[in-house]
Every structure is written in structure tokens, then in C-alpha cells.
Amino acid sequence: MTLRIAFHYPLAMIGQEVRRIREALGLSQRRFAERLGVHKVTVAKWETDAQGVRGPAERLIRLLGEAATDNPKPGNPKGARKAPRRRSERRRKATR
After folding, report:
1. Fewer Cβ atoms within 10 A, N terminus or C terminus of the chain?
2. Model-level pTM?
3. 3-state secondary structure 55-67
4. Which has the closest alpha carbon to 42: 25, 69, 63, 60?
């Protein structure tokens, strides 16, 4: 008698999933990349499917996605104004 064992391997993560998870967390590509320990260009490549997400990064993003669906962060509603910049930031920008 033979015993069949079925393994469930999730399909490779696509760029739309990465973007959906990042946006659900309310993070920019730069902040998301910092949290994952990768370069922001890598995140951009993942989101455009120019490069595949592999290994531990894929697992970590999937776990973050599960956490995001359990505890959604309120986003910035459309039309809402951003917080004003500090004076020091405005001065630095004006002197450039």
C-alpha cells in the first residue's frame, strides 16, 4: 500500500500582491524596503514583476500581509491634507 502525501506550495508572489500588502501597511516603497532590509529599487522591481520575490523575503512579506489583514491601518483618505512641514525642513528646501 502506498501513501500519497500532498504538499501545498503557494504560487510565486506577484507584484500586485507585494503592492497590496505594502499599501495595506500604509508604507511607502522606501519605508517598506527599510523594514525588509532591502533596497527601495528591489521593492519597485518586485512590484513591477521585473524581479521575482524569493526565499525569506517572500515568506516575510506573506506574514506581513497576514498581519495587515488582521490589523488594517487607517490610510490617508483621498483629499486629506498632509501634516505641514517643520520650519527647519522648509528652510532647507528653500535654500537648495
Report:
1. N
2. 0.64
3. HHHHHHHHHHHHH
4. 60
Mean model confidence pLDDT for the chain: 79
Burial class (CB in 10 A: 0-12, 13-18, 19+), 84: exposed
How many residues would you count in the chain? Answer: 96
DSSP for 17-66, please give it: HHHHHHHHTT--HHHHHHHHTS-HHHHHHHHTTSS---HHHHHHHHHHHH
Convert the pLDDT of each residue in 49-77 to its tens digit. 999 998 899 999 999 988 888 776 555 44
Q: Which residue has the cell 528653500?
A: 94
Ordered structural domains, the chain, with CATH: 15-70 (1.10.260)
Q: Which amino acid makes up residue 87?
A: R
Contact at 8 Å (CB) between 25 and 69?
no
Report the chain's C-alpha Rg in angstroms. 19
